[in-house]
TrEMBL record:
One of its GO terms (molecular function) is UTP binding. This is Mitochondrial poly(A) polymerase. Its cofactor is Mn(2+); Mg(2+). Residues 245-403 form the Poly(A) RNA polymerase mitochondrial-like central palm domain. Residues 118-187 form the RL domain. The gene is MTPAP. It comes from the Eukaryota. The keyword Oxidoreductase does not apply. Residues 496-542 form the PAP-associated domain. GO terms for biological process: histone mRNA catabolic process; mitochondrial mRNA polyadenylation; mitochondrial RNA 3'-end processing.
Length: 627
């Protein structure tokens, strides 16, 4: 059970916050019982004992739990957005639970006995957390101590952090939602002099100082923690310093996976957009989906959101009895698609004119899936808002299950995606390239084909489903078990190195010309059409999620897969001794020289063809002279 920090005890500490009385006395294990559960206390014991020797360091703001692993290295160059890890004591247990989440750090198999949360449970907890949170634009020289003291008059603060993204921002989570209401009641609409302000109220606030700080006043003590992935050069150094290829894949995942702060900011942004949509559609929900929630997201990925209007259609059965039926007066349109377009059109206008921090709003209403695209300046996210897209939400839940079942899945997917991006097989621009979603499904299919299988097929998950798991969306059977604890862990113990090498071998020799990929059954099937690459949509089975890929892009993928498999085979035969300053293993696969060498190799056959043609011409000329 986490305890919230009283208002008067919030003071600056990078990792944990304690009261002034605790600061002067020895920290004991009994004191920690106020903050964390018995299970977490066992993990914190060595750190609390070490903290008894560092009480003087605590006064200077040095983190007490210095032994806790950091998710990113502190870098001198600050890039936007950068987060500042400042928390109250209530988040210590939460930090440790995050370390228990699948992170690709285990060697093989899935032996973790910790109960796993279902996708709806995670979504609901994150949503409730976001509703207790405010986003505040601050001045750079704000005093962190005074800032917390001021906010604490509205209620106890559970946790907070700062980050930079076109300004200096604070994300503050209260223990109670009532504290947010109290803060909003004490917030005023700004007076901009000659400009007129649109009085739109939201949980995106701005902090102003009544008087400028004096020169000798307290300066904010902050610990910057860069939340952007490392540069290519830094990543190469990290990979070369790894002890094994398995370690390389886990390092790549650690550097690119979404951090806790970034995840919280994504749910908070969705919650702020929900507040705007609720002005028109009370009880609606805006839910993040896609890579932000399916465990495969990386730092810098877009934020996809889904406007769920189903909650607005639910009735209070207890108050709807009798012979009468009361309905809302509504306007009707010709089709569901037209209704979606009108809803998104209105929300797009609202975001453009009233949404704080929402810029570059585009209404893309005639796409196959209509959407509103915009940039949320305060968070730094590129956002897509859709509605009536429940199948995409189920796809996110399915990927969440696969990514949580076995720690190797996320590490392998992350590496294959990065490998594809390094060789321009994928692109952020729509076109004939393979998408990240297609690559993820290909990895899942490959893991289903292992012996024994690492991941179950979708049909297997369907047979395990209970009655409460049944789900049919627009005539498509989207049923699968949602409780991960009922799925038997795989007995496969293959290393990531073996899986990476054999992934490239498998698809380097896959019969794409006649077979399709189907994770529902986990086996190759005859292609139903002539598309170069056919990957069956898991739920809308008549659709091909890779229909956009042309033959030349597929051929590039196959050639690079074969070459990557060859590189790993050569290194295995040479038995390298890592770590090394020279790129090896995964780092060698990411080198641009592989693609450049490929271009050189393409030129060589053309030169041979030219010489062959010249030889044929000479032979013909000689034959003509002889005749």
């Amino acid at each position: 059970m986490q305890m919230c920090v009283p208002p008067q005890t919030c003071s600056f500490r990078p990792q944990i916050r304690v009261t002034s009385e605790e600061r002067s006395s020895n920290l004991t294990l009994e004191a920690s019982r106020c903050f964390v559960s018995a299970r977490v206390r066992r993990k914190l014991l060595p750190f609390w004992l070490g903290a008894r020797l560092t009480s003087t360091m605590a006064v200077r703001g040095v983190g007490l739990l210095t032994g806790l692993p950091l998710r990113a290295q502190t870098r001198t160059r600050i890039r936007c957005p950068a987060f500042i890890r400042l928390r109250c004591a209530g988040t210590v247990a939460a930090d440790l639970r995050r370390e228990e989440q699948p992170s690709g750090s285990v060697e093989t198999g899935s032996k973790d006995k910790t109960p796993k949360k279902t996708f709806p449970e995670v979504q609901n907890e994150r949503r409730e957390q976001a509703q207790r949170t405010v986003l505040i634009h601050c001045q750079n020289k704000v005093s962190e101590r005074k800032f917390l003291k001021y906010l604490s008059q509205h209620g106890r603060i559970h946790s907070h952090f700062f980050y930079e993204s076109f300004g200096f921002y604070a994300v503050v989570e209260f223990c109670q939602k009532d504290s947010v209401d109290s803060l909003l009641k004490g917030t005023q609409t700004p007076a901009n002099g000659t400009e007129a302000a649109i009085p739109f109220r939201s949980r995106f606030l701005s902090l102003k100082l009544r008087s400028p700080p004096s020169q000798g006043s307290e300066q904010p003590q902050v610990l910057l923690n860069n939340q952007l992935p490392p540069s290519n050069r830094k990543l190469s150094e990290l990979l070369c310093a790894a002890k094994s290829i398995d370690d390389q894949l886990n390092t790549l995942l650690k550097e690119f996976q979404l951090t806790e702060e970034n995840t919280r900011l994504r749910y908070l942004t969705s919650s702020l957009i929900e507040d705007i949509a609720a002005a028109y559609f009370p009880d609606c929900r805006v839910k993040p989906f896609g890579s932000s929630v399916n465990t495969f997201g990386k730092l810098g990925c877009d934020l996809d959101m889904f406007l769920d209007l189903d909650e607005t259609k639910k009735l209070d059965i207890q108050k709807n009895k009798g012979n009468f039926l009361i309905e809302f007066q509504v306007k009707n349109v010709a089709s569901e698609r037209m209704a979606t377009q009108k809803i998104l059109s209105v929300l797009g206008e609202c975001l453009d004119h009233f949404g704080p921090g929402c810029v570059s709003v585009q209404k893309i209403l005639h796409a196959r899936c209509p959407l509103v695209r915009f940039s949320h300046q305060a968070s730094g996210f590129q956002c897509d808002l859709t509605t009536n897209n429940r199948i995409a939400m189920k796809s996110s839940e399915l990927l969440y299950i696969y990514g949580t079942l076995d720690a190797r899945v996320r590490a392998l997917v992350c590496s294959v995606r990065y490998w594809a991006r390094a060789h321009s097989l994928t692109s952020s621009i729509p076109g004939a390239w393979i998408t990240n979603f297609s690559l993820t499904v290909m990895v899942i299919f490959f893991l289903q084909r292992r012996s024994p299988p690492i991941l179950p097929t979708l049909d297997t998950l369907m047979t395990l489903a209970d009655e409460e798991d049944e789900c049919v969306i627009e005539g498509n059977n989207c049923t699968f078990i949602r409780d991960l604890n009922k799925i038997k862990p795989s007995e496969n113990t293959e290393s990531l190195e073996v899986l990476l090498k054999e992934f490239f071998e498998y698809f380097g020799n896959f019969a794409f010309s006649k077979n399709s990929i189907n994770i529902r059954q986990g086996r190759e099937q005859n292609k139903p059409d002539s598309s170069p690459l056919h990957i069956q949509n898991p739920f809308e089975t008549s659709l091909n999620i890779s229909k956009n890929v042309n033959q030349s892009q597929l051929q590039r993928f196959v050639e690079l897969a074969r070459e990557s498999a060859w590189v790993l085979q050569q290194e295995e035969a040479a038995a390298p001794c890592p770590p090394s300053k020279q790129p090896w293993g995964l780092a060698a696969l990411l080198l641009p020289s592989i693609a450049q060498n490929k271009k050189v190799q393409k030129k060589l056959p053309s030169e041979r063809i030219k010489s062959l043609l010249e030889s044929v011409k000479n032979n013909i000329a000689q034959s003509a002279t002889h005749t």
